[in-house]
Design goal:
With 287 residues, the chain is of the alpha/beta class. The chain has helices at residues 12-21, 60-71, 85-90, 109-141, 153-164, 167-175, 184-195, 213-230, 241-244, 268-279, 281-286; strands at 4-8, 43-45, 49-53, 93-96, 105-107, 201-205, 233-237, 250-253, 260-261. The protein folds into two domains: 4-110 and 198-286, 3-Layer(aba) Sandwich (Rossmann fold); 114-175, no CATH class. Strand 8 and strand 9 form a beta hairpin.
Length: 287
């Protein structure tokens, strides 16, 4: 499914005219002006899976944030905008193949990390509650409680539960709705599963940051299936060779000037991995 067909950024002339109009003002930075135009990146034409590849400072995250703001996509975490960010976005143009679903969103590393931090904080709260329940269990199990009226019913029920169950089962039953028993990588993966719905446009900023290689391969399968069967479109910034190798992905190399699409096997990051494993080929074959 294709929702966003193309996106145009201001060229040198448009940026020059704008900066000329504010020349009497004193600013130390005009970001995001001159970031993408310095790469001669004026337009991106999209496929169901489009990848922005490049090193730190190449502008791939800037491009995602600009596209997100222009399309008014949902996002969980705020990001730092410069004095001229909205001015830059106003100079951009987009071409839609069809109307964007309201749940379309951008997902950044900050979103995932904030989610994992919240889960950790919740788990720490559960740990405190667990200790309190341990004490409740012991008090209930070995108490000499006597049932005197209906007002004592809840306490009687707790005593009966404690006497009929092990300590761990008693505590688990009281925490079952809140307890989280996942690693950080698993929680990150679950976050993507929760936020990515059917029929939507999704911008993903380096989603591999919190995922193990095994999880990255699972994530690749999830993205490919979401495109093939569930009407999704993805624009992804990444360094991961696992994501770069996705079937039918169109890859823009933002380390190039001018920026242009390239096969994933020719990208510098992938070539480094390839060279490394070639140098150790004998070690693998010896196994």
């Amino acid at each position: 499914m294709l929702y966003l067909e193309s996106f145009s950024f201001p060229d040198d002339e448009m940026e020059f005219d704008f900066l000329l109009s504010i020349k009497r003002q004193c600013y130390t930075s005009f970001y995001p002006f001159k970031v993408l135009s310095g790469k001669e990146l004026n337009i991106l034409n999209f496929e169901p899976i489009t990848i922005l590849y490049g090193g730190n400072g190449s502008g791939k995250t800037t491009a995602l944030n600009v596209i997100s703001e222009k399309l008014n996509l949902v996002r969980d975490s705020r990001f730092n905008q410069s004095n001229f960010f909205s001015d830059y976005v106003n100079l951009c143009y987009c071409s839609l193949e069809r109307e964007l679903p309201n749940h379309s969103r951008i997902i950044t590393s900050d979103d995932v990390f904030d989610y994992m931090l919240n889960v950790r904080m919740m788990n720490e709260g559960i740990d405190v509650k667990r200790e309190e329940l341990f004490e409740d269990y012991l008090d209930a199990k070995y108490s000499s409680f006597k049932f005197n009226s209906l007002n004592d019913y809840e306490q009687l029920k707790k005593v009966n539960q404690a006497r009929s169950k092990t300590q761990s089962k008693f505590v688990r039953n009281h925490l079952i709705e809140n307890i989280q028993e996942h690693s950080n990588g698993e929680n990150a993966f679950l976050y993507f599963m929760e936020k990515i719905e059917e029929n939507g446009l999704y911008l993903l900023d380096e989603p591999e940051n919190s995922l193990s290689p095994e999880r990255q391969l699972e994530f690749v399968k999830f993205i490919e299936d979401s495109v093939r069967f569930f009407g999704c479109q993805f624009i992804i910034s990444t360094h991961s060779p696992f994501l770069l190798a996705m079937r039918a992905a169109k890859i823009y190399d933002l380390d190039e000037n001018p920026v242009k699409p390239k096969p994933w096997t020719t990208l510098k990051n992938v070539q480094i991995y390839h060279q490394f494993f070639e140098e150790h080929r004998k070690d693998f074959e010896a196994k």
